[in-house]
Amino acid sequence: MKTRSCYKKILKSIILGMMASVLLFQGYAQKNNKLRIPERKIGLSIGFSQHQKQSIGGVFIEAGQEMKLSKKMSLYNNFGFTMHTGIDPKHDMVVTSIPSLRLQDPSFSTAAFRFVTAGIQTSPTLLLNLKSDKIKLGFGPVVRYQTTSWPSDYEFNLISTPTTTRTLYYTNYIIKQIQPHALTGGGRMMFDVHVAKIKRFEARATCSYQVDSNGDRLAGLGIKLQRSYVKLP
Amino acid sequence: MHPSPKKLLNMENKIFEHSIENRMVGFKLKPADLVWEKVEKRIQKEKKRRVLFGWIFFGMVIAAVGIPFFNSHENEFQPTSISTISTPISNQKVVESAENNKPSSDTENELNQLQQNVPSVSETSKKQIFQKDDIDIERSNFVSNEIDHPVSNTPQESSINTANIDRKMVSANPQGADTIIIRECEELGIKSSAASSAAVNKNIFDRQWNFNAHYSFHGTGDLSGTFIEFGYEKKLGKRYGFFNNIGMTIHSGKEFFSSNNNSSQLNARYNSMQYVTTGIQISPTFYRYSKRGDVKIGAGMVARYQTSSQPTTYSISPQPATPGIFLTRIREMEPNSFSLGYKISVELHLISIKKTDLGFQLFFQNDTRGDVITGFGLSLQNKFKKQD
After folding, report:
1. Chain A residues with CB-CB distance to B336 below 8 A
2. ipTM value
3. Residue A227 near chain B (CB below 8 Å)
4. Does the beta-carbon distance from A120 to B265 stay under 8 Å?
5. A152 at B interface, C-beta within 8 A
6. How many CB atoms lie within 10 A of CB B73?
7. What is the per-residue pLDDT across A135-174, written as a single tens digit (0 to 9) for each?
8. For the whole prediction, is pTM greater than 0.90?
9. Hey, which CATH number is domain A2-99+114-152+177-230, 2.60.120.260, 2.40.160.20, 2.40.10.10, 3.30.1490.10?
10. Residue B287 and residue B379: Cα distance in Å, rounded?
C-alpha cells in the first residue's frame, strides 16, 4: 500500500510539472510572436529493457517525433513497444538441486514455465536540452497497455510417486492469481546523450526509467537514431 | 593566485599572433613578370571555362523551361482545333505578324478573304473526318501553334464561321507541367475534378509514413491481440509502391479449462493460465494501386522473431481438493523462434484530410514455423515529398 501511494505521489508531481512547463511555454510563445519553423526530428529507438517487477529482461522499440518548442525545450511524442521474457527460477533451482532425478526416472520430462510480458505505450515527453542539445533530460506521463503470462501468485510442485519398481517424478504448476491485461498510467524519466551526427542523421544513447499505477517498473538502455527535417508551412 | 598553465598558453598564443599581425601590416609581395604572365593565362583559361559552363547551364535552363512550356501548349491544343478541318492558315504573313506581336492590316484582310473562300464543309464530310479515330495530331499541332499566338487568335475566332466547325475533345491525362496548371487553377478558384486533384497529389507526394494498427488473430483464432506496424512507403511510378516497415504483434489467450470466462477484462485478476505470444517482424511489401488509387494490394516477405509462453507439450488436470484450480504439467517448450514467411494485404482508402489518408486494411501472413496471423484494422498515412 505504501509503494502504491508513493507511485501516486510521483505521478502527481510529474503531471503537475508537465502542466506547469506547458503553461510556461505558452507564455513564452505569446511573448515571441514571430513566425518560427520549428526543427523536427523523427526517429527510432531500440534497446534492452528490464522489467523490474517481474525480474525479466527484454527489448524495447520506440518510434517517435521530436519537435523543438524553444531553444531549451522540445516535445517528444512517441509510440513504444516492450517485450520481456523469462523463466520461472524456482523450477530450475529445484530440478537441478536433485541430480539423481533423471537417473531414478528416465521418463521424467519437465520444462520451466515461461513468462512473456508485452506492452504498448505512449509517453509524450518534455525534453530539456542541455549543453547545446548534447544532453537531453526528459519527463512525461505514460499510458501503457500490458499483457502478461506472469502470475503474481503461483505454486511450483515436484511430486514423487513411489511404485514397486522405481519412483516416478513429475512437476506441476498451480496458478493462484494472474492479471493478464492491464491498462495503466504512469510517469517516465528519460536521459539522452549525443553520440554521433552525420548530415541529418544523429545517433544518441538513451536510458529511461518508468513506473506505472500497476506497480511495474521498467528500465531501458538503448540507442536512438534520429533524422532531422523541417516541416514547411 | 597564479594563472593556470592553460591560461598562460592561451596568453602566449595571443601575444605571438599580435606580433605577427603587426609585422605583416603594409607587407606587399610583387611577383616576377614571368610568374605573373603564367598566372594571367591560367586566370583567362578559368574564365573561359566558366563562360563555357555558363552557356551550358543557360542552355539547360532554357531547355528545362522551354520543353515543358512547349509540351503544355501541345497538350492545350490536343483537342482538335478549328484549323484541322479549315484550310491551313499557315500563311507566311500571319506567322510574321505573330512574330512581331502586332496585327497587320494585311493579315486581317487576308483572313477576311479566307473566310469568304473557305468552302463550307458539308455535314457528311465532317462526320467522315471525325469518325476516324486517329487524328493527325502532328498536323493539328502544327496549325494550332500558329493560332496559339494572342494576336492571331481573336481575328480568326471572329472571322471564321464557327457554325461549320465541330469540336472534339481528346482526353489527356495531366502530366508534368499540366499538374502545375491544375494547381494554379485550383489556387485561382477554378475547381478541377476530384480525380485530377488526386492525380496532382500523387505526383507531388511520392513518399509517405504509414502507421497501421490492427486487431489480430494468431493461429486459428485461439490467441487474439494487436498488430502494430510503422513504416515508410515510396511510390514507384503511378501504380506501385514499396513499403519498408517494422511491426510488433501481441497475442494472448487463456487456458481452455479455466474457470474464468472473462479473462480479457482489463485490470482483473484470475487464476487460469495465460499464454502470451509476441513478435517483432519486418515485411518489405510491394503495393499495387488500383486505377483510381482507392484500393491497394500488397505482397511481401516476412522475417519474424517470436517469443511465446505457450508450451508445446503440456497437460492439465483438475485439482481434486480445490475445485476450479487446475494443475498444469509443462513437458516441452519452444519459446523463441525465428521464421520467414509471406504477407498479403488489401487496403481500402476511406478518407483523406490534407496530406493524411485513412484506410481500412486486411492482412494474412504465414511463416515457416506454421504460424498464421490474420488481422484487420486501420492504416494512417502521412504523405510528403522528399526534401533535397
Report:
1. 85
2. 0.79
3. no
4. no
5. yes
6. 15
7. 999 999 999 999 999 998 888 888 888 888 888 888 888 8
8. no
9. 2.40.160.20
10. 14
